[in-house]
Amino acid sequence: MVLSDGTEMGNHKNYLQSEHWKRIKQAYMISNRPKECWCCKTKDQPLDLHHLHYQNVGNEQLEDLELLCRTCHAEVHRVTDGLFCVRDHIVKAMEIVKARHQEGTFVKVY
Question: What is the DSSP secondary structure assignment for residue 51, as one 8-state letter?
């Protein structure tokens, strides 16, 4: 993975530990974007900044990202497991998890 400034990041895990990603997270947190889990609306648990797609990794716009609690984040990745993760698949997975919360059918399995 190469950032827009030419910096080589290696893999996604390295990228998520980079100063660049820390700046993106800070920018998100001071923006007017929602500060709750997109799926379950919790504000009381640790929240992860989640990519809606991976086409712009390293050059994300804030609109490419949403906050998810760790439980919903894990479930979104479970639902998308094995799919080519483009925006439509990831957003659909997030909608599935959100609907499960709204219906009361979401069960933590972690």
Answer: E
